[in-house]
Design a protein that fits this description.
With about 80 residues, the chain is an alpha+beta fold. It is built from 3 helices and 4 strands, in the order ααββββα.
């Protein structure tokens, strides 16, 4: 909700919908092919990171697919927020 609400306030509903759809599409792609993402073991063991726009999707691979841990803006300090 935070990303969507911020996007609406800055760029309007249409852009917010496009951007959140981009994030959702990335999550679906990562669930199908987790190796599309970068290994982030230096931040947390087993974590991977995919990029969409100015955000990173942090996740880990599970038996059932992927578990999205957090979606962070590229300027955020990932080790601190994960």
């Amino acid at each position: 909700d935070g990303i969507f609400d911020y996007s609406v306030s800055q760029w309007g509903v249409d852009q917010a919908l496009r951007y959140t759809q981009e994030l959702e599409d990335l999550c679906k792609a990562l669930a199908q092919t987790p190796t599309l993402a970068s290994d982030c073991g230096h931040i947390r063991q087993g974590y991977r990171r995919g990029a969409a726009g100015r955000h990173f999707v942090y996740f880990r691979v599970e038996d059932y697919g992927i578990a999205v841990i957090r979606i962070l803006h590229q300027r955020m300090d990932a080790p601190r927020h994960l």
